Amino acid sequence: MKNKPSIGLVHYTYPPIIGGVEKIVFDHAQLFAKYGYDTNIFAGEGKNDNKLINLVIVPEFRSLGITNPILREEILTQDGYPPGYHQLKDVIYEKIETFFKSVDIFFIHNILTFTFNPCLNAAFIDYINNHKEKKFVAWIHDVILDSMRKKKTFNNKSLAEMLYKPLDGVKYVGISNFLKKTLVEDIGFPSSLITIIPNGIDIPTLLNLHQQTLRIIPKYRMLDVDPLIFLPTKIMKHKNIDLCLKILFELKQRGLNPMLIITAKNFPHHKDISYLDYIDDIINKLGLIKNVIFLHNEVEEKYRDIEYKIVDDFYRLSDIVFFLSSYENFGLPLLESGITKTPILVSNLEVFKEIESENIFYADIENENSQKIAEKVVNILKSNKQISFFRKVKRAYNFDSIFQTKIIPFINEIWKK
After folding, report:
1. pTM assigned to the model
2. What is the chain's Cα-based Rg?
3. What domains appear along the chain, each with residue ranges and CATH number?
4. pLDDT tens string 228-262
């Protein structure tokens, strides 16, 4: 047996055609290729610029609503199949017998439970029945229902059976508990037949992250930490790095898994490193070595000229920004966090209130100790629904994580059987 199966992803269309399922198929394809699978896309329309992915265009896979709406209407309304149905089904079957030869596992997105092209459904069912040596997964995003969200009634009873009867030898994946409930309660699928694997998002692409950022994130599992805190400064005494570290320690004491990203460790204008030594000492004494990252140290030399772009990435990735200075004459991080919509906790300085007095979070660093400020941080993260949801999406719906923890084990299980 091969170390890894060859993968075939099947859908009516593929990007740049716009659609939710198209985007999921695209993301799946990129991940399969990234993790070393022989990756093939079979679609009626689309383009591909990833050299690790093989895109096969089969025009007959497209929706009949576009290519032959009259035939589709006849199939959906008549009590039997019109001649055009059988002709198109045979054409599709002949093509997939040729195109599908090298594929071991097929991920069939939506086709087997939808009516956009019943000829494609039927050809696929014949192929499944004729190729028991291959593995088939029906990846269900939608199922055809009537206006009452019940089984749709068709004059052709065999069409209803084709759409609603589970196929022998096919594994079924639903994208949510809600969809699984629909399939079980309204369609009659056995609950044990359906595995739930949610959709996700490609966070690096969505946020347009730099390749250096993409290298740093998995190195420290930054999407899994809670919370991810950004401190945009070099090591200078008036920035109160020591206070930030003590707050970080208090967050750990509360059972969290925090990480503090400090922009830079060096200070380029004098050689006094006494405060830097003091900071290193605090990190060691409080056991924070794995919880503090100096961003400048992680950026490769050849990318120094665009380091500000990487800094921008971490504004957008972080759950909260710290800027607890003893004094400032302005406060650029307030503006940067404002434009990236990242909450920021700042010291109670007059100049900061000049910039924004209401819509940022303040700490009285003269009268509040690290324990009290840490509690304030916890409350900020809990009380703001958008922050909480952002953190949940990073941890639970990051597609790379879903692929590693759910899709790969699922493949391994069915591949070994």
Report:
1. 0.87
2. 27
3. 7-201+398-416 (3.40.50.2000), 205-396 (3.40.50.2000)
4. 999 999 888 999 999 999 999 999 999 999 999 99
